[in-house]
Amino acid sequence: MRALHHLVAIAAVVLFVVGVRIVLPTTPAEANAIQNATVNVLQMQADYSGALPELKMHDRTFALD
Fold this sequence. Notes:
Layout (H helix, E strand, L loop, with lengths): L1 H22 L17 H7 L18
């Protein structure tokens, strides 16, 4: 009886793996997907420096009563 349970479990795992491979097909990844990956952080900061409003808050973390 235990052998039957093992066979059913193995069959269930095999069917699950086959179902996943059908639903989510795997394709090989390209090594050169991005041709130019350089980022100029200084230019990004200069471009977006005034894009967001500055949040003014009163930090009272170290204020003692």
